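Table 4 source record.
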Amino acid sequence: MAIIFKLTTAGRQALVNAKQDGTAARTLVSVGITAAAFMPTDSLAAIPGEIKRIDTLAGDVVAKDTIHVTVRDDGDQTYTVRGLGLYLDNGVLLGSYSQADVILEKSAASIFLLSTDLRVLDGSVDISTLQFGETNFINPPATTERQGVVQLATAAIADALEDATRALTAASVKALFAARALVTRKFTAGTGLTGGGDLSVDRTFSLADTTVAPGSYGGAASVPTFTVDAQGRLTAAGTTVSAPAWGSVTGKPTTLGGYGITDAALSARTITAGTGLTGGGNLTANRTIAMADTAVTAGSYGSAAAVPTFTVDAQGRLTAAGSVASAPAWSGVTGKPTTLGGYGITDAALSARTITAGTGLTGGGNLTANRTIAMADTAVTPGSYGGAEAIPTFTVDAQGRLTAAGVVAVAPPWRSVTGKPTTLAGYGITDATPSARTITAGNGLTGGGSLAANRSLALGTPSTLSSSTTNSVSAESHSHVVDFASAFASKNLASSGYQIFPGGLILQWGRLGHGGTVPVVFPLTFPSSVLIVDVHDDGFAGAAGASFGAINKTTSGFTACCTVPTEGMSYIAIGV
């Protein structure tokens, strides 16, 4: 955005030719700077508080009413800039600009560089005839530490390779390399390589392919085979199955475990002859197991009239044998009948007689064995059913047995419950409020009553507030003290002071003495914004028709202006 600068009357006249019928060519030669904020007017001959004039400037005409100016100061002076003035080659101040905020600050080690558009609002003045001097300073000379302007080297300077300040272009670098390269020198690919050639272009050398298929050769059961040429490259490669002779295998194990055999018997395994046996031993040789002799005399024992007797040990061997005269027990009698009829018995129950279990019973059968008759299980889970809060339920079959049983929660309809109480105490409720409880309206309130019905409480009609009211309450009303002193306590009633009103509105005032352009700092910085600043006559005897104004307004101050320097000024500012 262009800066709007104020033309002076003298500067406007300097742009008009001697015949007063056109423009005159003038050169902008310097820019004056000041740290003071001032009111630009058309009567200025120089800017107030001028620090220095900078004559290193350049620019160009942008439009009839706009020029672009670039100013540079690389001295070691330190200063702050709030105003500018443009000076012509005849020493006349062309125009000026100023603001309360800092435009630019320069330190001793820095370079002042300002580039901006300047525009005039007076449409009757044509500033397009302005001229500018040397412009090479716009950027400083380039160094290894600072960006700036650099001169390009000529072909002769580039070829000498001795200049330390001029820059080489890509074309000059290419020419240097072309001039110095031995383009006719050749690189020849030797045995096993491809590529090469002279240095007129880039060259590439590569290993030539052989007939060997790329891949991995050899493994646990295969041996790689290959052919090598004089350059150490493989010209052939393959594999063959590994088949060494057993006799050439070294480090063979001598134990079953060494070979990993797990299903063979160890030679150290021992066969031991147990009770009644002889022989055995380990498996380092053949072994025989035999029965040991006993004390029984070999021979025949027993006859039709003699019963053989013998003794047997735990291994089933006869350790003693003999015979005794035959004296059979009943159990030894043969040909005995097997039925009651065979024995002639008539008062005994037949074993074929059957006992049958009826409905709900199990067991029974014929009398060939002992029989049991029992009640059959049902699907009912054994246990206790029913209680103070549960009613038992059951299903009975034709035999009077429970075939199903359960419980249901006691849940009689409320209407069927008799003897119900009618009070909170009757139900044992202790955390409810009785309807007899009373809500009483205190001082300043109306309404209330027992809880037998809905109640409302309301503030009584307040008394009218005045400077004499006090903090008080009556049966149906109340009033308050109005603390005007506290509400307006934040203030400074000096000749330059302020008053803070309830709600945040701030009123500030001050007297500024004689007129002109005066920077003003408010007694109190507005927290948010300035709403209005009014500058007016302070009663000094001054020229009639004086104009007053306020520019560069911020929350901390402004610049007061009066067209008559001898006229006194004062101001009122309102903000929040």
